Amino acid sequence: MPDSSFEILIIEDEPTLREQIAQLIALWGYRVRIAEDVPTALFELEQAPPDIILTDLVLPDQPGYVVLEHALQRSRAREEHLRHIAEVALTLAHEINNPLAILMGELQFQLEATGENPDAQQALEICLESAHRIAGVVRRIAALQEIDYQEYHGLRLLDLKASEGNISSGDDPDRRSLTADN
Fold first, then answer.
1. DSSP letter (8 states) at residue 60
2. Which segments of 39-174 are extended strands (E)?
3. pLDDT at position 61 over 90
4. Radius of gyration of the chain measured on its C-alpha atoms
5. pLDDT exceeds cutoff 80 at 175
6. Residue 47 above 50 pLDDT?
7. Among 14, 23, 73, 154, which is least packed, fewest CB within 10 Å?
8. Is pLDDT at 57 greater than 50 in this prediction?
């Protein structure tokens, strides 16, 4: 059975054919959305882009390839947007990492120098642990490969995924997300 996470947008102006195609593809295990014309299809694309677009090329209002061109333009714009996010993320990671490394070194030095003062040791350990957590987030940003958005209680969150080759799963057990502006 195919991966049911794939979604197919079917664009067909003839109602019977549209329904038959949708039923057949749904029987194959795919999620299906339908549109009877180009404006409806463009609206569906704006709601959530499907994985596959199956379109009639001869539609009454506009040719079906208009939808394909729109999907391609949207995909290119998204790629450009992601490229800019990655450039900013890498710059921020570098700018944060250098002073953070100095702070972590100083915290470690102070921790070793506290001797028998348990209150000072505890405070420094908390600071050092926090610095290590920040460093883990910076490593994930630096290894950014793909950007996904997730909804969480009405907020759109930016989920940072790193390639497994660059960051091992043991680097930071707490997976963090950042709030996205757009």
1. S
2. 52-55, 144-152, 155-162
3. no
4. 25
5. no
6. yes
7. 154
8. yes
Res 19: pLDDT: 94
CA-wise closest residue to 135 among 176, 86, 77, 82: 176
In the chain, where does the domain assigned CATH 3.40.50.2300 lie?
7-63
Which H helix or E strand runs over 34?
A: strand 31-35
157: its two tokens: 């969150």
What angle do helix axes 38-47 and 65-113 make, rounded to 10 degrees? 10
**Span 69-103, pLDDT tens digits:** 888 888 888 777 777 777 777 777 777 878 888 88
Give residue 167's region: left, alpha or beta (phi > 0; psi -120 to 50).
beta
| Fold of the CATH domain 7-63 | Rossmann fold (3.40.50)
CB atoms within 10 A of CB 29: 12
